[in-house]
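Assess this one:

_____
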Amino acid sequence: MYSSPESFFLETERFLLRPWKSSDYPNFSRLAKNPQIMRFVNQGKPWSDKRIRSFIHKQEKLFWKEGYCRWVVEDKIKRNFVGLCGVGVFDPPGFLEIGWWIAKRFWGQGYATEAARCALEHAFRKIRVPHLKSVTNPVNKASIAVMHKIGFQQKMSGFLGDYLRSPKYLPIVTYSLDNPYLHSSPQK
């Protein structure tokens, strides 16, 4: 879909959202092994090195095949790794989900919202994704606030098992948004 991952990036006022490189492993590993970051992702359990490498590889493939992924979020000026944000497949059941992980030292500064707006705009305008969801634990008030700020509405409360995933009785909330560029009436 794109000629080169090195030449592709999305840009916000403060960040670049870009495809993954194998050199992102050390920074992402610190994020994926931090229990505070992972408490709503993996019940506080750090990811293994194998799972981290698999995630990066999956994002690289997704970018090449579909034109989107959970991008690396990088500070535009210092080029520091901030986290990740973007669209991925929530398997099972296989719907498209927007999500974000931001390094703890950047919390509370609007970084997730800024990156999510950019990734959402790309998914809706450029890729023409018809609909996106976002799933989190109902205790994760910061992510729920981001979902509201980017226009998502709550559609479901339930358990992770409702999506045939484990742990079966982990509480979740699902928010969603239709692509307004596909569903709007033509302007006169």
